[in-house]
């Protein structure tokens, strides 16, 4: 028997499972975020939600994921641009020509 409580093994409950959309997603933690939107964005969001048949939360999460991916790409490109320039890649077209 272990006398140190920090070494105790505890049974963990399985995480909730989301099977919507034809895939299985495990949801461990969620955070609620309140966002203030101008009227034009609120109307556009409402139209999109109705048209796509998804929740406002899903639309905003997808938009945030795309924005984060775009920012990561831009950061990576900014870090690699000097090295690429030294190798003769000065524009996106230079890269496309090399990989095409």
The largest sheet, given as strand count, sense and whether it forms a barrel, is: 2 strands, antiparallel
SS field, number of helical segments: 3
What is the mean predicted local confidence, pLDDT?
83
Class by SSE composition = mainly alpha
| Terminal residue distance | 64 Å
How would you describe this protein?
By secondary structure, the protein is mainly alpha-helical. It has a domain at 40-100. Helices cover 53% and strands 4% of the residues. It is built from three helices and two strands; from the N terminus they run ββααα. It has helices spanning 39-52, 56-86, 92-99; strands at residues 17-18, 25-26. The chain has a two-stranded antiparallel ribbon. A hairpin with a 6-residue loop joins strand 1 (17-18) and strand 2 (25-26). The longest helix is centred in the last third of the chain and has 31 residues, at 56-86. It is elongated and about 50 Å long. 0% of the residues are buried. The mean pLDDT is 83.
What are the SSEs and their pairings?
Elements: E1 17-18, E2 25-26, H1 39-52, H2 56-86, H3 92-99
What are the defining features of this structure?
100 residues, mainly alpha, two-stranded antiparallel ribbon, 3 helices, 53% helix, 4% strand
């Amino acid at each position: 028997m272990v006398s140190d409580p920090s070494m105790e093994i505890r049974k963990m409950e399985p995480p909730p499972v989301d099977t919507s959309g034809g895939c299985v997603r495990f949801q461990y933690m969620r955070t609620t975020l309140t966002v203030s939107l101008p009227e034009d964005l609120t109307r556009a969001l409402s139209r999109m939600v109705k048209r796509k048949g998804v929740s406002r939360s899903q639309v905003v999460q997808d938009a945030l994921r795309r924005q984060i991916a775009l920012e990561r790409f831009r950061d990576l490109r900014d870090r690699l641009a000097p090295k690429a320039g030294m190798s003769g890649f000065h524009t996106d077209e230079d890269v496309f020509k090399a990989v095409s």
